[in-house]
Write a structure and sequence with these properties.
The chain is α/β, with parallel strands linked by helices. The protein has twelve helices and 18 strands. Helices cover 30% and strands 27% of the residues. Strands 3, 5, 6, 9, 10, 17 and 18 form a seven-stranded mixed sheet that branches. A six-stranded parallel sheet has the order 13-12-11-14-15-16, sandwiched between helices. Strands 2-1-4 form a three-stranded antiparallel sheet, with no helix packed on it. A hairpin with a 2-residue loop joins strand 1 and strand 2. The structure holds zinc ion (ZN) (2 copies).
Length: 342
């Protein structure tokens, strides 16, 4: 079969490799679509991800496809079913798993290799994080379940109330998913982005105010002006830069909540005003990854038609073009996802 193999920094090849062998409990899935993700672009640029992937390795983690083989003992799935499988599964018995923090599992099992004709889904992921795709849901919609699960969990962790004003900084696919959820939840969305096209996308999803962040603008002041000087109830940082982490803290009202959702480069430091944090009682959260319950919840949202690929995926490319796609995504910001079709 053809598969993308990541060899290191900006080095990948789509080349023939053996179809993965499956063991008992595993399933083999013929990939119908794999979606590009900001994490993949980051990994491509850096050449590795300490926890998720160490090259040389097959690459890609957001996928949907058809079951073509099942290992011994698999009763949940059968050949021919359309399925979506998450990129990880927790161990279910460590300290963190027992506390419902499966995203922080000490032995989180990651699976890569979605940019390929076939992918092996290991038994643990088959058991806890793989689902049959409802007949009315497309492969691209289903493949959104993994990133959406991270977003839905981050949204819940931030504990919004209906009618809250939520500032969302960063309008890539993740920020846009937050905007969509916030509107579903009847919140007021102040969308902060660096590009007109991104603000237009946020508007299409129902964002109430569009704030263009340029080198000469002051988005913190704009958010305050739009909230009677008070600040937003919640700020979601979906960029992953120290500057925007700092903005998010300065954008919320007294008693407000910040979610540092975007992971900054290693060793980044931020400057936060301790008096502001203390006397204004600002709650700072950071959300990472997903849990099985949120994979389920995300699939329910997709299944109900609330989240569709039309808003988050705007290109389709054959697997053979993956290297060019990654280079393009790396050198130009402001993209939606590309659907890679093996
Ligand atoms: Zn992803
Ligand atoms: Zn665990």
């Amino acid at each position: 079969m053809m598969a993308a193999v990541l060899y290191g920094k900006e080095h990948l090849r789509v080349e023939p490799v053996a179809v993965p062998k499956i063991d008992s409990g595993d399933i083999l899935v013929q990939v119908k679509v794999a979606l590009t993700c900001g994490t993949d672009v980051k990994v491509f640029r850096r050449g590795y991800h300490a926890r998720m992937i160490v090259p040389p390795a097959v690459f890609g983690h957001e996928l949907a496809g058809d079951v073509v083989a099942v290992g011994d003992g698999v009763t949940k799935f059968s050949i021919g079913q359309r399925v979506v499988a998450s990129n990880s599964a927790p161990c279910d018995h460590c300290y963190f798993c027992r506390r419902g923090l499966e995203n922080l599992c000490e032995d989180l099992l990651f699976n890569n290799g979605a940019y390929a004709e076939y992918i092996r889904i290991p038994a643990r992921i088959v058991k806890s994080n793989t689902y049959v795709i409802p007949p009315h849901v497309g492969y691209q919609d289903a493949a959104l379940v993994e990133p959406l699960a991270c977003v839905v969990r981050g949204f819940d962790e931030t504990a919004p109330r209906e009618g809250d004003t939520i500032a969302i900084i960063g309008l890539g696919p993740i920020g846009l998913m937050f905007a969509k959820l916030a509107k579903l939840y009847h919140c007021r969305v102040l969308a902060v982005g660096r590009r007109r096209t991104q603000l237009d996308r946020a508007a299409a999803l129902g964002a109430d105010e569009l704030i263009l962040a340029t080198d000469h603008s002051d988005p913190v002041r704009t958010v305050r002006e739009l909230t009677h000087g008070r600040g937003a109830d919640i700020a979601i940082e979906a960029v992953g830069k120290p500057q925007t982490w700092e903005w998010s803290v300065n954008m919320v009202r007294r008693g407000g909540t910040v979610n540092f959702f975007g992971g900054c480069p290693n060793d980044s430091k931020v400057n936060l005003d301790t008096a502001l944090l203390h006397y204004s009682e600002i709650t700072c959260k950071a959300s990472f990854h997903h849990t099985p319950a949120y994979i389920r919840k995300a699939l329910d949202l997709v299944s109900a038609g609330h989240i569709t690929a039309s808003f988050f995926v705007n290109k389709e490319e054959p697997l053979a073009n993956l290297l060019e796609v990654m280079r393009h995504l790396m050198s130009h910001n402001g993209h939606l996802k590309t659907a890679i079709v093996p």
